[in-house]
Give the backbone structure.
Amino acid sequence: MELLKSGAFDYIVKDEDTKDRLWNVLLHLQEIKGLKKEVEQLKNELKKNYDFSKVIIGQSDSIQRVFALIDKAAKTNITVSLTGETGTGKEMVAKAIHYNSTRHKYPFVAINVAAIPPDLLESELFGHEKGAFTGAQGKRIGKFEEANKGTLFLDEIAEMDIHLQAKLLRVLQEREITRIGGNAVIPIDVRIIVATHRNLLKEVQEKKFREDLYYRLLGLPIELPPLRERDNDYLILAKHFIQSFCSDNRLPLKTLTAESIAKLKQYDYPGNIRELKSIIELAVVMSESDLIYPSDINIDASDQMGNLLFKETTLKEYEKQIIQYFLNKYNQDVIAVSKKLDIGKSTIYRMMQRGELIK
């Protein structure tokens, strides 16, 4: 028992069965060695799969700037703070940073702060000992311990209770935790990546987020652009989602018509990449042929006017979007739209002929 505690793999009693036992131990060792090699190969494969230039798809200038920052983040252990609207791919970026860093062989652990009640979040993060509170029937390892030597991704960090923020700050400063109900101090080595769709500085000014924690977490800030500010990335992403969905569901590859592309271009995607993915997958299902027509694309334009001013553009472009909005609203009734907007029917028809509007 002392030898096993000191790290011995196994022990063998010398008797008439020694040869068979020795042989079984060697086979077991060989199996473990093979499993370790397989795990190493899988980890390397996972790293390849998170080549951020392939996983985060796009060619716009705004996303290229994000690539440059991801590259800088992956080369160091600096804390990273990701901001951006919901659906812009913050967790994907966090994984890309982790799997391209020196910590890629160790765990990537994600936790959505907003999804866990405040009274349970402390236990989720730091763990607890048996009997620490009612219902604690056994020891629990927290996310910090689980992510040791790897990366802990704290999503929606702005939703964290102000009292728990103080405990998180201490852990980040001291690099050690104590489980709830325990006395043992446990050192940790964890890279922190946080994300939020809120303006954290504004939260600090409104006394909803600790200023000292804000500066501790700021690190390298990376703001993810909304899809409406990524030029033609919507089309690159749409084609990628079509290919992936068709492949996963063993469907023949489908293609967007020019009219469908025009319809996708007109939309502002308040739900960003996540919304585009849902729209495209439904369009593939609804399509009756190898072509995806505008009628297959279910875009709710009812909120489009509310999102119009998010995109800074020319007056002419605003005019096109406003007319398109009312065409969609009035079921492509040109006469009704011309009366509603007090413009000539011929103006709308000419814009349609030039491909500036879709009917």
Notes: The chain has three domains: 58-225, 227-302, 313-359. The mean pLDDT is 87. The beta strands are 80-83, 108-112, 151-155, 176-177, 186-187, 191-196, 220-223, 255-256, 291-292. Residues 313-359 form one domain.
